[in-house]
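pasting Nyctalopin for the record, 474 residues
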Amino acid sequence: LTDTLTLVLLPVSALWLLPQGVVARWACARACPPSCSCTPERSCSVLCDRAGLADLPKEFPCEASAINLEKNRLRFLSERAFGTLPSLKSLSLGHNNISFITPGAFKGLTNLVDLSMAHNEYISYLHTRTFTGLRRLVRLDLSDCNLFNIPDRIFIEQTALKELLCFQNNFRRIPGAIRGMENLTHIYLEANKIEAVAYNSLLGLSSLRYLNLQENRINVIHDQAFQDLVQLENFYLNDNLLSDLPGLAFKGLTRLKMLNLGGNQLTNVSNTWFSDLVELEVLYLDRNQLVSIEEGAFENLTSLITLHLNSNNLTSLPFRVFQPIYFLGHLFLFKNPWTCDCSILWLKDWMENYKLVRDIPCASPSSVAGLDLSMVVFAKVNGTCIDPSELNLTTASLEVLSTTENRFNSLISKLLHKELREEMGNGTESLRNETLLAEEEEQMSAGVRGPWAHSYGPLLYAPAAGLLFALLGP
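structre below
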C-alpha cells in the first residue's frame, strides 16, 4: 500500500528514482487483464488459463515474460493480436478452438522463444507468413491439431528453431519445410500418416539429435535417406509397416545411441544395416516377424548394452551370429518359438553364467515343449551334445526293447506250462510239478532264470517253436 501511494504522488518523470522491482510490480498489477492473474516478480507471468475466454484480452502488461491462455474458447487470432510485448519469452495457446491465424498475428513478439498451439483440433491450415516476426523462436508445438501439410517456406525466418513438435496430425509426408534447418535438434512427427521417407526428406539437418517417426504408415525408406543426420542420437521408427530396409539405411549415423525398429514387419536382419552404428547402446527389433538374423549383423555393435528380440518368429540363435555382442547387459528373447536343441546350448550356458536373460520358452522338440530353456537338460556322450529329440528317441527304443523282451519271456512261460502239463499227466506228481512250474514261471517273469531252463530247453525248440514265432509275428 505504501509503495502504491508513493507512486500515485510522484510524477511520471520521477519514477526512475524508485527501485526497479517496485515499478515492475505496480505496472504488471495495473495492466493485468480481467479474468487473469499476474505474478508479482519483475518479469511477470500472466495466467489466463481456464478463464472461459472467447476473445483475447485487449491489453497485456508490457513487462510480461510468459502468457498462459490454455484451455479457453479462443477461435481467431488477428494481425498483431498481442500488440508489442518485447519481454515475452513464452506463449501458450493450447487446448482452444482456434481455427484461423491471420498472417502476422505474432508480430510484436520479437523475443518469443517458446510458442505452443497444441491441441487445437480446428487448425487445418497455416499461411506461409503465420510466424512472421518470430526470429528468435526456439521451440514450436503444433501437436494434436488437424494439419495435413505446412507450406515449404513457413519457417524461412525461424533460423534459430531447435524443437519442432508436430505429432498427432494428418501429415502423409515429412514436411518439406524442415529441410535445411541446420539448427533443429528435435523433431517429433509420431502418430501421423506418413507413408515414406524420401531421399531428400531430411536433407541439411546436420544438428538433429532426436527424430521420432513412430506410429506412422511408413513402408518405404529410400536409400541414404538419413545420410545428413550425422549427430542423431535417438531414432524412433517403431510401429510402422516396414518389411525391408535399404542395405545401407543407417550409414553414417556413427553417433546413434538408440534405434527402435520394433513393431514392424521385418523378417530378416541384414548384416549391412548396422555396420556404422559403433556407439549404439540400445536396439529394438521386437514385435516383428523375424525368422533369421544374418551372420555379422551385430558385428560392429561394440557399445551395445540392450537388445530386444522378443515377440518374433525366431527358432534359433546361432552362436556365430551372437558372438560379437556376447557381453551385452540385457537380452530379451521371450515370445519366440525356440527350438531347444544343441545349437542353442551355448545360450543356456550364457544364461546360467551371467544371469542377464530369462524367459526363453521352448516350442520344440516335443519332449521339452513348454519348458523354459533353463530347465532343459542336455545329455552328452563322449563330450558330444545329444539333442533332446534324439535322446527321447533313444529312450523310446529302449522302452520298446524292454517291452518286447518281457512279452517274449511271458510267451515262453505259457508254452512251457502247456508242454509240461501234457507230459506230466493228471497224477499227484503232476500237481507237485505244476506248483513247481508256477514258481518257476514267477521267477521267469521277474527275469530270473530257473534250474528248469536247462532240463526243459528242448520243449522250446521242438513243438513250441513254430507257435512262438506265430504269436510274436514278424
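Residues 1-24, 393-405, 423-438, 440-474 have pLDDT under 50 and may be disordered.
The radius of gyration is 41 Å.
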